[in-house]
Amino acid sequence: MRTLFHSERGGHEQVVLCQDRESGLKAVIALHSTALGPALGGTRFHAYDGSGNPEEAAVLDALNLARGMSYKNALAGLDHGGGKAVIIGDPELIKTEALLRAYGRFVASLGGRYVTACDVGTYVQDMDVVAQECRWTTGRSPENGGAGDSSVLTAYGVFQGMRASAQKLWGDPTLRDRTVGIAGVGKVGHHLVEHLLEDGAHVVVTDVREASVRRVLDAHPEVRAVDGTEALIRTEGLDIYAPCALGGALNDETVPALTARAVCGAANNQLAHPGVEKDLAGRGILYAPDYVVNSGGVIQVADELHGFDFARAKAKAAKIFDTTVAIFERAEADGVPPVAAADRLAEQRMAR
């Protein structure tokens, strides 16, 4: 209980451990805050094979992700608190309709305190299945009244964060002739590539899945690929590094090796531990807080709850540029790293 109530991951209102033996479902639903409204956050489907205890790793991931959603939703101006769910296991091996429906029943049992959506390992078609058991489901297919793939506006929001970073560093909100390295070109990353190329940037990519890299290179031969994240962060002439896969990308090993002037990416929980933001600032690397710039997806699925209008949602996501600029200004005025400035702004809104 100490982990939930007294650590830096704590303060959560509710944590639900879910198990359905018949379907094989094991899941964690974490609600960090409902101060601004029902908790809204996606469902991650991941095996956590690299950890000694997958279930413990899943709980900690859900706690961190839920807390991040509270801050993300607050800064996005949404009337939603923060929550997140994790289904434990390899989605390619255990995902079934029965498992997703069992999960939907657990979400429904919360009575609307938690609204779910897609995340790593879950897709629009999965949310359509979950919705058969639970009406508090977003990220559904257009044919079922949903907004479709939320990665579209997630990538657009990250691009707006990059524009804000460019304005802060170089006085001009464009990535033209800048070199951007993207680690992870899956659902969000490949859309981000297209925004950057349209803006005139040079793009370097890497991904653990060769097929994801191949898809980008086939569509955009001008993009360059490197083998692995270590090679990417050491790329000569890199202006912005964009972590777009799993969390913890900025740690005691990667930060000293970074050649980029800024970090701005779609991955959640990029800072491996408290203090990394100070290490970045100490090296003169501008950090655009992940939960600010990657909020386009949650803006999209939140709009779905009111009858989805893409133009309206995109207009809201475009404001990520203004929010990021305001955070950089607040950070400079207060003499703190941008993530501390972002935290203060989010906490002020939740407190009100």
Automatic annotation (TrEMBL):
Protein EC: 1.4.1.23
Keyword list (alphabetical) reads: Branched-chain amino acid catabolism, NAD, Oxidoreductase
Q: Does the keyword Oxidoreductase apply?
A: yes
Query: Does the keyword rRNA-binding feature in the UniProt annotation?
Result: no
Pathway assignment reads: Amino-acid degradation; L-valine degradation
Uppermost EC category: oxidoreductase
Places the protein is found: Cytoplasm
Q: Which domain of life is it from?
A: Bacteria
Pfam (any one):
ELFV_dehydrog
The UniProt record lists the Glutamate/phenylalanine/leucine/valine/L-tryptophan dehydrogenase C-terminal domain at 148-352
Annotated PROSITE patterns: GLFV_DEHYDROGENASE
> Known catalysed reaction(s)?
L-valine + NAD(+) + H2O = 3-methyl-2-oxobutanoate + NH4(+) + NADH + H(+)
Quaternary data: Homodimer.
Family membership: Belongs to the Glu/Leu/Phe/Val dehydrogenases family.
PANTHER family, A to Z: LEUCINE DEHYDROGENASE, VALINE DEHYDROGENASE
Q: Indicate what this protein is called per its UniProt record.
A: Valine dehydrogenase
Query: Species name for this entry?
Result: Streptomyces iconiensis
